[in-house]
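[job 4471] stage=fold_predict status=RUNNING
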Amino acid sequence: MSLDRADVKAATKPHEQLALHLASGMEAVNTVIAQRMASEHAPRIPQVTAHLVGAGGKRLRPMLTLAAAELCGYHGPYHVHLAATVEFIHTATLLHDDVVDESAQRRGRPTANLLWDNKSSVLVGDYLFARAFQLMVEPGNLRVLEILSNAAATIAEGEVLQLTAAQDLRTDEAVYLKVVRGKTAALFSAATEAGGVIAEADATQVQALYDYGDALGIAFQIVDDLLDYEGDPKQTGKNIGDDFRERKLTLPVIKAVALADTEERAFWTRTIEKGDQREGDLDHAMALMQRHGTLDATRIDALGWADRAKAAMQALPDHPLRQMLTELADYVVARLK
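[job 4471] inference complete, writing structure tokens
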């Protein structure tokens, strides 16, 4: 599929420009995904997978792999396998997350565990992880295998850490960062780093790609957490305060707890640790965050991580994709008010 550069420039958002530039590669990735999510003996596997894949999403992570490989001059076929691997890992974690979080909606549609059951979601997620490992082996590159398998382990570790930290008021910003690096940034950084490694980029460029993905993933998650309190539900697909109602200690609340007086800490203990939430508690939580400026402070943190991502791009070759990825970092935080 050939695209005129004017078509790419006509796209209004950075991820749309990226999607247009990488259209032929992503078409190949989608073909691999469709082929590898099939199952001769268990038709529920493609049913569940197709439901989640068909719900949309920007396919940002596999695009990062394709972009990193092209940016570093790769011309072989295996960046497609790695991009599909990344998407399978991501889809598997979404299936598992919806079971853990007892979610009923994702991307504006009922979750797989609601339409089928928890067992189906967990087992299909396991199947996708297995498919991901089959795919990541095919390029025959041990370093790539190490990067992606480490990412899979880190994601699981981050999710378990979140289970123990999410409702514990002792959770501080350092622990929050470990959770975010695990559950979100690990796959972003693996996606970009693997693209550089398969292209045989030098160590400086591979490190820059890792740093970019890591910082972009952290910024992405911080923005998501902030949008839970400030976002437009029509855009985010979440109601304002869902994280509060689910008793999740995200960065705006962690900052508020750190600045709380005795009375305020008692409020956070009751609502987050004990789960005793009453009418008006969300409004009070919002007021406390406004009083201590933690929403603004969280926004500043997100912008800082986006700046780190953009700075990492300076070590990469001069290429239209370098500009697109730089603008993507701005777009991630541009979702904020």
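[job 4471] summary: The two ends are 37 Å apart (CA to CA).
[job 4471] exit 0
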